[in-house]
Design a protein that fits this description.
Layout lengths: L1 H10 L1 E2 L5 E2 L1 H5 L4 H14 L7 E5 L4 H11 L3 E7 L8 E8 L4 E8 L8 E9 L3 H12 L3 E11 L4 H7 L4 E11 L2 E4 L1
Parallel strand pairs: 3-4, 3-7, 7-8, 8-9
Antiparallel strand pairs: 1-2, 4-6, 5-6, 9-10
Helix pairs in contact: 3-4
Bound molecules: guanosine-5',3'-tetraphosphate.
């Protein structure tokens, strides 16, 4: 998505070979107009997949996922991160490792809002190692629902996330695919 790549080049900061800071439009401040375009782009790509709900992971996935749900005219379900195990049979819970943040959390989702007939589009801000997205897929599968696809705003293609998700047989659609990061340099595929 050209407008997103331009925004990344203008405002993104590669702080080292692994991390791109996008605080000005995605993580701290949100460019809502850009999110609207992102939502429409995801909706266009997945329009023939009979999506019944969009799901995302708190917190930075919420903005792009909200605008995608709006464009598809379906509800948004938020999966939450809890530091400790949730011993509660109202929730699905999957232990998840974040290599970027070097922590482990439990990704949880209310059983009430995931039904077996649901066809879910998962949206997230970054794809790095694919841990968050694969845990989100596990939760959808625990509900007996279907994962219709995964939409990612920024994919770091030099990390193994895409490969991991494709092995699980899911359609991954990323709006910006980064081939290489270096302090002050961002290169797209
Ligand atoms: P993975 O799911 O693909 O394996 O990624 P990982 O756990 O390693 O990423 C954990 C968190 O770090 C996620 O945020 C993700 O968005 C963020 N992240 C990963 N790479 C980058 C990057 O290059 N730049 C930025 N800005 N963030 C990155 P999170 O913990 O879910 O935080 P938030 O959604 O509450 O902001």
């Amino acid at each position: 998505m050209k407008i997103l790549e331009e925004k990344i080049l203008k405002e993104g900061q590669a702080i080292d070979k692994d991390i791109l800071k996008v605080d000005s439009f995605l993580n701290q401040q949100v460019d809502v107009e850009l999110m609207e375009k992102i939502g429409k782009e995801f909706a266009k790509h997945f329009e023939n997949k009979n999506i019944t709900k969009v799901a995302t992971i708190e917190s930075s996935g919420i903005a792009p996922a909200t605008l995608t749900a709006l464009a598809l005219n379906v509800p948004l379900v938020i999966f939450k991160k809890q530091p400790s195990k949730v011993l509660n049979d109202e929730f699905y819970s999957v232990e998840t490792i974040s290599f970027t943040k070097r922590n482990t959390y439990n990704l949880i989702a209310s059983k009430k809002y995931l039904l077996k007939d649901d066809n879910i589009l998962i949206i997230d801000d970054f794809l790095a190692n694919g841990e968050a997205s694969s845990s989100a897929m596990k939760i959808v599968n625990m509900a007996g629902a279907n994962v219709a696809g995964i939409g990612i705003v920024i994919e770091k293609s030099f990390q193994p996330g895409r490969e991991k998700l494709e092995k699980l047989g899911v359609d991954v659609y990323s709006l910006a695919r980064i081939k290489k990061l270096e302090k002050g340099i961002v290169e797209f595929i």
